[in-house]
Amino acid sequence: MVAREVTKTEKLGEFTEAESGNTFAVVRMAVKNTGSEFVDFNSFLQARLKDDSNHVYDASFGSTDHPIESGILAAGEVARGDVVFEVPKNAGGLTMQFDFSTFDFFEFERVTVNLESKADSIQDLKQSLQVDIQSPGDAVDHEGVSVAVHGVRTETELGSFTQAEDGNEYVIPDIEITNDTGEPLNVSTALQMRVKDGSGLAFMADIGGSSQLSQGYSEGSEIAPGESRRGELAYQLEQGTSPLYWTFNFLNLSNEMKTFWKLR
């Protein structure tokens, strides 16, 4: 784990403001799975801040454009992004505690990072995926659920009124999910699907862009046994970002699985 930088702000986006007398401490961090198996990572459970008066602050539900991805990490995968904490403006001596013990219930290991000092040389983590990488056109089956990426396209505008920000583009994978579990299946674009770049930075589906797709993926109802559901999702990111992956977390607690499709 590396804490790359910390910034403070009283506002996140257009609608989220810190309470009076408080500020948001935004920690950009990276976490890598250096093992050979899938591991669970959750910034809300593993990271917290502590001040010099011994007050502890859990992660806030406030979010930046790049919240760090929680869920399972594949072997060699990096999760990179921001964890937000709301703290008093006068809180001093802030440190971040990170519990590696969440990866291993039989051994307690915690590291403490001083957020008020900066190393002479900032270390980083390099993603080196140790799992099979799929290509558009491939389908993956796991415990009765089949996921396929049929193709991918890019656009800078969708419809008459939705345009990517300057220097950005929409990356639009065409996906299909088939339910052969024998039970109704709930699938969440927010919890199970991401686009990730080569550094581990993850992007959630762009709500505005996805809403303009004529054949967008619909998650408004369960997928019935034997049913397939197909559609597109739009992700907004910097033009030309490469390598680029679309990931699907099967959310199977007894047999964890996460699959990567290389989009470019």
From TrEMBL:
Domain DUF4352: 2-100, 137-245
Signal peptide (from-to): none
Pfam families, per database record: DUF4352
Keywords recorded for this protein, A-Z: Signal
InterPro entries reported for this sequence: DUF4352, Immunoprotect_excell_Ig-like
Name recorded for this polypeptide: DUF4352 domain-containing protein
Native species: Haloprofundus marisrubri
